[in-house]
Amino acid sequence: MNLLTPNPKEAESIQIIREVAAQFERPVLLFSGGKDSITLVRLAQKAFFPAKIPFPLLHVDTGHNFPETIEFRDQLVKELGLELIVRNVQDSIDQGKVREEKGRYASRNTLQTTTLLDAIEEFKFDACIGGARRDEEKARAKERVFSVRDDFGQWDEKNQRPELFDMLNGKIHVGQNVRVFPISNWTELDVWEYIRTENIAIPSIYFAHKREVFFRDGLIWTANEHVYREAHEEVVEKWVRFRTVGDMTCTAAVLSEAVSLDDVVNEIRLSTLSERGARIDDKRSEAAMETRKKVGYF
Amino acid sequence: MNIQNRKLIKIATAGSVDDGKSTLIGRLLYDTQSLTTDKIEAIERSSRQRGYDYLDFSLATDGLVAEREQGITIDVAHIYFNTDKTNFIVADTPGHVEYTRNMVTGASTSQVAIILIDARKGVIEQTYRHFFIANLLRMSHVVVAINKMDLVEYSEDTFLKIKADFDALVAKSNFGEEQITFIPVSALKGENVTRKSEHMPWYVGNTLLDHLEVLEPEDLQESAAARFPVQLVIRPKTEAYHDFRGFSGKLYGNSLSVGDRVTVLPSGNESTIKSIHFFDQELESAAPGSSVVLTLTDEVDCSRGDMIVKSGETPQSEKLLSATICQVNSKPLQVGQKYTLQHGVNRVLAKVDRIEGKVHADFSGTEETDQLKLNDIGKVHFRLSKPIHFDSYHQSKSNGAFILIDEGSYDTVSVGFIE
Predict the structure, then answer these.
(1) Which fold has domain B316-418?
(2) What is the pLDDT of residues A68-116, one digit of tens each?
């Protein structure tokens, strides 16, 4: 191996992760078991190799995670010799700090925040590394790489520090902490292509598998005891995979036959094209539907 | 094709309020199939409701539009799209009140500036300012997109008149002609954005997207001397790497190779590069822009904030510093004030000795002042607690820029470009 052409996004992320280790006393990597946080773990490995990742992982467990994700998490932590901290939303519920949602759209997704803030306080974390990306949504397009939060974990979007060149200013007052987003500049496709290039292991639910599901609001929901379902909502078995991996109550599946990383990358590329093309001009929609069928859509 | 093979081009866009910047970005996103279905439906619906016979692509960046309607502070937004060959990151820097701060911020992470001009209005005061900042930040390329050509009957004369006016500005700048490209476009109708216009046969150049794609990242990289600011010392303390002591950082300027004779600053100690590591690979050379770990043959003193350079290519080391400052915070910069100066990953204390003057951001000269307010640009002299090891910004962007951090709020209040 001679001269390596650097992947500029990877080099930037590694530089950011090293700045976290250098500028903060108690950093932590927020780990969900999803593809973005798995990518962060690989980047952190690269940042410090041959030394180990010098901070723990924190998983805020809703108790409604896919069992495949939890298995994967424990395996990864064991293989890499990492320290894992788990804090449970169930405990926050039992302590009466948050109340379980009820009914058709009940989810523990929003309850996670309390558990997270409590963990930050408990361990006095001053920097929390997360896998959020700016291309995910409009508000995130303005998020900084080092995003300062006050004692209440709040984000003052109107008063953000400008980030110039690649100089990161992590100076904070006691009680403040920083959310750090090393893959801010990555797109979903960047992440998948990286996982493929690096051959990074990911939980099996990202690949197509047979699953008992039901349809609601045009989305495909997992059918099991954690997900509220009405009697008329019929359970069927389908080939599906998950495009994002979170809590079962807020993560919908997509119909798919993508069983390898190549399939997944192709599916994402084509599905965005067809999703966009299908409704824009009639000529394209026929071809798009055909493309979709080829990769396992409806 | 994977990301390693795809080029990355970073673009900052600058324009005044109504010259169609959002429409241009929306058009680029739409034509490269980078918009989601729901977004396109929203654009179609809204365009229909407003009775337009075309699609209103400014809605593609409607996060910003909503901001404008609410009148809250407009901030730099980052937008991503790609073609088969290239990944693009657009730092969209909104064009009014705080445009200097925003454009400087967006331009600092970009290589190319797109400056929009409304063909009906031509070169206006804002254009001067946008170009001034592109010049101050020494951007690699400037694309002057002369928009709304459909509203001036696709007139070549109008295009040439605006180009001549702009060329007069170029003459006052450090840019060479080859760094500036003029493209007549209609963002609304998608002409010369990604598709050649049928209405402007007199224009024989590339469309905007084609032009952005042919820019070579090699051209955009610096050809300066190798600079390796040390971020962290890597000491695994494991059986396999018992005596390993590596220096991690991101390499700027030129490449470094195993066997290169190097000097560690500030100590001035010399050594030789023993090995270069990138994760589990050992490399012969590190390419510019790579985040690697170096080891040296000698046990030299070297820690975070130090810099490894090739012997014989040492930068300047000074405690007195002159720089052009752009104030990016509402707290003004004044004589006598102390700041933390962050240069790369190194921090020292800095005191403002003298403000030489405020620079007019329209190439019209300077005026005397005793303070620099938000969005002001000025020449400032500093005294530092310890020397820093710098190049002029003109020689090296990465080693010639710094930020000032307020000692009370810890906010980033200024950015400096070393003379």
Answers:
(1) Elongation Factor Tu (Ef-tu); domain 3 (2.40.30)
(2) 999 999 999 999 999 999 999 889 889 888 888 887 777 777 788 889 9
**Tokens 């009940």 sit on residue:** A106
- How many Å apart are CA A253 and CA A250, to the nearest integer? 10
From residue B48, alpha-carbon distances to B44, B55, B353 in Å are: 6, 8, 60
Interface confidence, given as ipTM, is 0.94
Query: A138 to chain B: which residues are within 8 Å by CB?
Result: 62-63, 77
Fold classification of B227-310 is Elongation Factor Tu (Ef-tu); domain 3 (2.40.30)
Within 8 A of A157 by CB-CB distance, chain B residues are: 75
A256 to chain B nearest CA, in Å? Answer: 19
Higher pLDDT, A266 or B201: B201
Q: Do domains B227-310 and B316-418 have the same CATH topology?
A: yes
Are B285 and A2 a contacting pair at CB < 8 A?
yes
Shortest CB distance from A169 goes to which of B79, B285, B405? B405
Kindly determine whether residue A167 and residue B33, on different chains, have CB atoms separated by under 8 Å.
no
Chain A residues with CB-CB distance to B60 below 8 A:
none
Domain segments of chain B as ranges: 3-220, 227-310, 316-418
Per-residue pLDDT tens digits for A191-237:
999 999 999 999 999 999 999 999 988 888 888 888 888 889 999 99
Q: Does B204 lie at the interface with A, CB-CB under 8 angstroms?
A: no
Closest-CA residue in chain B for A12?
B291
